[in-house]
Every structure is written in C-alpha cells, then in structure tokens.
Amino acid sequence: MVKKSDLKKLNTIIQEGNEFKNLRKYNKAVEKYLEALRFVEEKVKEPEEREVETTNIKSQIDQIYSVEIIDIIETASNFINNNDFDNAYKTFDEAGRIADKIVDKGLRDYEVNEINYIINKTKIEESLFQAETIKKEEQYDRAISMLRDTLNAAKEFYMEDLESELIKKIENSINETYSKKVNLLVEKANQLKVSGDLDSALKTFSESLKLTENYYESQLKDTEITNLISLINQIYSNKVKPI
C-alpha cells in the first residue's frame, strides 16, 4: 500500500503537470510527469501496484505528446495558408520528432501516419501553388504540364475519393489555364476578322474550339464551346455572298 502522504505528494505532482498541460507548456508538463514516474518507482514497493501507476503515467505523457502534435499541426496549417511551405515542412519535422517519443506503439503509429498524410497532401497543395504562380507569369503550357502532374499525384493520393475538393480545384485550374489560351486565340481571330481575313479568322476560331476538348466537364467548358460555335457561325454568315 502507498502511504497517504506519498499518495498526496504524487497527486500534487500530477496536478502540477496537468496545469502546465492546460497552459500548453508541454515540456514542463512532461517534466512533472517524469518526476511523478520517478516518485512511483522509488516509493511504491508493491510490483503490481507500481506497474499500474507507471503505465498510467506513461499513458498520460503520451497524451501530452499527442495534444502537442495537434498544436504543431495547427501552426503548420497557418504556414500553408500563407503559402510558406518551407516553414510548414520544418514544423512537420518537429511534429514527427514529438511522435517518436510516444511509448504506446498504436498511438505512435497513428500519429506518424497522420503526419505523413498531411505532409503528402501539403506537397500536392505546394505543387498547385507553384503551377498557379507559373500561370500568372503567362507561361500557360508549362503551367498546364505542372497542373497535370499535380492532378496525377492527387488522384493517386485520393485513390478512394476521386471527387475530392482538391482534385476538383486542380481540374478547375487546368480549365482556367486553357481558357487563357483560348482567349488569346479569340482575340487574334477577332483582329483577323476586323481586317477582313475571314479564312484566317475561321481557322483561329476553330483552333480555339479544338482547345476546349482538353477541358474537364464544367460550366466554363459548356459556355466557351457555345460562344465559339456562335463566333464561327458568324464568320460563315459573313462569307456568304449576297445574291
């Protein structure tokens, strides 16, 4: 049996650890729980009782690490929202180091898997951001190539959920990039039409229409096809000579 005085001392140490945990001072909380662990190993003589107490304390230490990981992931998410991927990855590394300290194998494996999942998802989001940056620089062909690579990675990642929000976001970005190319061709075709070169205008409008075959199904695709067909029909109407 543990002496009442020893039990009171142990509860005080654990309570101090809980207070540090609630204040998110995780290192100090762990220090207190380790102090409690040493106290149990020294004061509790009954092997079975000592085993129960040490197991309970180790479990609570694991829970502190788990809560700390949640806070670290939240910090990483803030970096991602600001497109600061380098610091996000550094933060994920910190989360991984904390996860490695967890004693319980099941909980440790769970945390490591969750961290790796978020890292892989972040890599896809980073690739999308890089492609969007290239698109803003009007390097449309390069942007499309990067976006398709990103889409393939996303489909492999979301193998069981091909309707995921991120996949749709990438497909929309591909559509928007092709739309930029279409708009450039339409502008060129309109200039040719104004200059009276209807054959070249028709050819350029047709090239624009051909590009829409690369779009993923969307309202944008339907709208642009309708508009381009209308523009092509106008050219044919202008080419018909009056009797």
Structure description:
- This is Tetratricopeptide repeat protein.
- With 243 residues, the protein is mainly alpha-helical.
- Helices cover 83% and strands 0% of the residues.
- It has 9 helices and no strands.
- The model has no long low-confidence stretch (mean pLDDT 92).
- It has helices at residues 4-22, 26-43, 47-81, 85-99, 105-136, 140-157, 165-194, 198-211, 219-239.
- It is rod-shaped and about 105 Å long.
- The protein has a domain at 1-101.
- α3 (47-81) runs parallel beside α5 and α7 packs parallel to α9 (219-239).
- The relative contact order is 0.05.
Q: What order do the helices and strands come in, and which of them pair?
A:
Elements: H1 4-22, H2 26-43, H3 47-81, H4 85-99, H5 105-136, H6 140-157, H7 165-194, H8 198-211, H9 219-239
Helix pairs in contact: 1-2, 2-3, 3-4, 3-5, 4-5, 5-6, 5-7, 6-7, 7-8, 7-9, 8-9
Organism: marine sediment metagenome
Protein name: Tetratricopeptide repeat protein
Question: How many E strands?
Answer: 0
Write the element-wise H/E pattern from the N-terminal end onward: HHHHHHHHH
Per DSSP, the total helix count is: 9
Sequence stretches where pLDDT stays below 50 over 5 or more residues = none
Shape: rod-shaped
By secondary-structure content and strand pairing, the structural class works out as mainly alpha
Strand content: under 5%
Distance between the termini: 114 Å
Rounded average pLDDT: 92
Helix fraction, binned, reads over 70%
The major sheet is characterized as: none
| Radius of gyration (Å) | 31 Å
